[in-house]
Amino acid sequence: MDFKTIFNLAGHRALITGSSRGIGRTLALTLASAGAEVIVHGSRNDENLKHTVAEVKAINTQSTGIAADLSSSAAVKKLIATAGKIDILVLNASAQSYQTVEDFTPAELERQYEINIRSSFELIQAVLPLMKKQRWGRILAIGSVNQYKPSPRLAIYSTTKAALNNLIMNCAKQYAASGITFNNLAPGVILTDRNADVLKDAEFSQKILGMIPAGRFGDVSDCAGLALVLCSDAGSYITGTDIPVAGGMQL
């Protein structure tokens, strides 16, 4: 078995939503290092997006960046049109806010639904025709440990992640015979800028740490190896999986 070959993504184009920072940025760098032409996506054309695009282009000069607000269906359609040929889709972008159920407004509920579910569905629809035609495709959703053990203050986020996983499982069965794999990678508490503020509270941080059997928070690199397997020929016979990367927090 030639390991260099089965992990080689040369000739493939990957769109990774929400990849200007955090886990998405690491996945963009990982897939580019494996040879993929990567489209880095951010909600805004800000410094995070520009910096990550520069990093990825230093690895693969064919890579590029696109800014699009996934809460807008029109913006998603523009993203699809601009991105062009995509045979690896990583659904990493998401919206969340720490609130109790009583505090949620209809607008916030709609925002999280639009970004976390509706845009993912539209992107899947858009990339399927090409993947079916070439009989090769990889679709990887980035879920959350909250889909198993929902935080009281992340009720809507947790619900959307569970729904996204359900969609992925549905599609996995439908399109396996077309050479397209659908999988879900569910991170636990990963040390990203998104989690930085909430983990500044020492008491809260220790409480959460006590819920993780591994005894540590995750690093963005903890998600990279599995993502590469699931997006390459190494994962060609893996579909319909939901794999937590959470140090056992899901248990």
Protein described:
This protein has a seven-stranded parallel β-sheet with strand order 3-2-1-4-5-6-7, with helices on both faces. The protein is an alpha/beta fold and 251 residues long. The two termini are 34 Å apart. Helix 6 (155-175) links the parallel strand 5 (137-142) and strand 6 (180-187). It has nine helices and seven strands. It has one domain: Rossmann fold.
Which CATH top level class fits?
A: Alpha Beta
CATH architecture: 3-Layer(aba) Sandwich
How much strand content do the residues show? 5-15%
Number of domains: 1
Within CATH, the superfamily carries the name NAD(P)-binding Rossmann-like Domain
Shape: globular
Number of strands: 7
Return the string of H and E elements. HEHEHEHEHEHEHHHE
Proportion of helical residues = 40-55%
Instruction: Give the strand line-up of the largest sheet.
Output: 3-2-1-4-5-6-7
Radius of gyration, in Å, reads 17 Å
Q: Give a short account of the largest sheet.
A: 7 strands, parallel
Average pLDDT, rounded to a whole number, is: 96
Kindly identify the CATH topology.
Answer: Rossmann fold
Low-confidence stretches: none
Report how far apart the termini are: 34 Å
- The helix-and-strand class reads alpha/beta
Number of helices: 9
Would you summarize the structure shown here?
With 251 residues, the chain is α/β, with parallel strands linked by helices. The protein has helices at 3-6, 22-33, 47-59, 73-83, 106-134, 155-175, 193-199, 202-209, 224-231, and strands at residues 13-16, 37-42, 64-67, 88-91, 137-142, 180-187, 241-245.
